[in-house]
Amino acid sequence: MTANPAFRLFDLGTNSALTAAIAEELEVPVAPVELKTFADNEIYERIVDSVRGIDVYVVAPVSAPVNDSLMKLLIFIDAAKRTSAKSINLIVPYLAYGRSDRKAKPREPIAGRLVANLLQDRGIKRLMTMDLHTSQLQGFFDIPVDHLLAMPVQAAYYEQQGLTGGDIVVVSSDANSLKMVQRLAEVLDAPWAIVDQDRDPNIEPAVTGHVAGKHAIIVDDMIDTGQTMVKAAKAVQQAGATKIDALATHALLSGSAAKDLQDSVLDRVVVTNTVAVPENARFDKLVTLSVAALFAEGIQHVIHHDSLAPVLLSPAAREEAGQ
Ligand code: R5P
Known about the structure:
Elements: E1 7-11, H1 16-26, E2 30-31, E3 33-37, E4 43-47, E5 55-59, H2 66-82, E6 87-92, H3 111-120, E7 126-130, E8 145-148, H4 151-160, E9 168-172, H5 178-187, E10 192-196, E11 206-208, E12 215-223, H6 227-238, E13 243-251, H7 257-262, E14 268-272, E15 286-289, H8 292-303, H9 315-321
Helix pairs in contact: 1-8
The structure holds ribose-5-phosphate.
The site of ribose-5-phosphate has 14 residues, from β12 and α6.
């Protein structure tokens, strides 16, 4: 391990296992932060060692409890700023509030924009994140946003099992995930389909596209309550799919999601470790892929001022490009 690297990597306890895995890839220690919560839930933080004139990287998904996680990050930025860190670089594997990205009804806020402002107004240098709810969210920031994709590890997972080509079908759980679906389908050389899922619970979801006799991989950016996936899986099963996976980057798994997904017609629920899944939300069908190497590589590219393009490629495309 590099005892005194040119930058410091910090963790705020929101997904310490991921930070540790990124640190291991980078061969650097995780720098200590004193963190405590007062009786009334007020958060106290102190950066233990000096970071004066040093580039600071902090790994902290804004995940449940989202408002506490966001506040932890804001307080860390304030501490780093006041102690004259050279730059503050946020590694936010999951950024909450992305679902509030426009005014869909009168008198609605755009909370995603508010969160972007709260973060960037404190003077951060960059944000590295993964699979934002929509990639246009990058436009809420006036600083560089390195938008990584979980696709390379997801594609590798399916390629390693020989699940490519016409025997599988990549399915969009609803209209929102279509871009992710088309990208993965292209990489896996597979067809794609879409579940037309009206949010009205009285309307049965319908599948557009051919899924009969195929191993269906239903894709979404996140699984929150799990209901979108459960309903999509039922529709895909009724349309004749033989095996059904749910594939999502962010495993929020709120409420009874674990039980509902385990009891559903899904065969597997494949997620990544952008968000820490507590012990009581784990279940037999859950498969977790690690994105630590992608983030470590992303950080390395930023430090060395290299293009991030290779980090966004599928394993096959990288091999072909010799990268
Ligand atoms: C919605 O636009 C998102 O992409 C997800 O489909 C949604 O947030 C999933 O939520 P849940 O798991 O609660 O159905």
